[in-house]
Amino acid sequence: MYLETPKKKVNKSGKEVFDFLNDVKNFETLMPQNISKFEVINENRFLFALTGMPEIVLQKKHQTPYSQLTFGAASDKLPFTLTADITEINDNESEVALSFEGEFNAMMAMMIKSPINNFIGTLSENLSKL
């Protein structure tokens, strides 16, 4: 299953956006209002839970300075990645697109598609307000 958000403009340079997302504690400010738990585990990992959903641990998997950050589920039970692609427009503006990719059976994909779409859409929207 692959989902992505439209590119959103952020009034920050590519480096500023990258540095913001690279600091996992900043994800708390991007989370939807229905977050029930957020905890930084270490500099590369954080745990979050949305109301009515199980806890998810995300960890940094890959990074290309100032242009891409990929986070992945720490558990193999739900293998997925969340990637931020950053394109700098100028010194004070960049565009960010978030994508979600995971391998799920058809039933699971059908159940989680809408909540995941809403989740990454909220992250993207909140990122554009930085």
Could you please describe the fold and organization of this structure?
A hairpin with a 2-residue loop joins strand 3 and strand 4 (45-50). The protein contains 3 helices and 8 strands. It has one domain: START domain (Alpha-D-Glucose-1,6-Bisphosphate, Chain A, domain 4, 2-Layer Sandwich), CATH 3.30.530.20. It has helices at residues 14-22, 27-30, 106-128; strands at 2-4, 8-10, 35-42, 45-50, 56-64, 68-73, 80-90, 93-102. The termini are far apart. It is α+β, with helices and mostly antiparallel strands.
Overall form: globular
First-last Cα distance: 29 Å
What is the residue-mean pLDDT, rounded to a whole number? 94
* CATH architecture classification name: 2-Layer Sandwich
Estimated share of beta-strand residues:
35-45%
Tell me the structural class: alpha+beta
- Low-confidence parts, pLDDT < 50 over ≥5 residues? none
What is the helix/strand order? EEHHEEEEEEH
CATH H-tier superfamily: START domain
Cα-based radius of gyration, to the nearest Å: 14 Å
Helix content: 25-40%
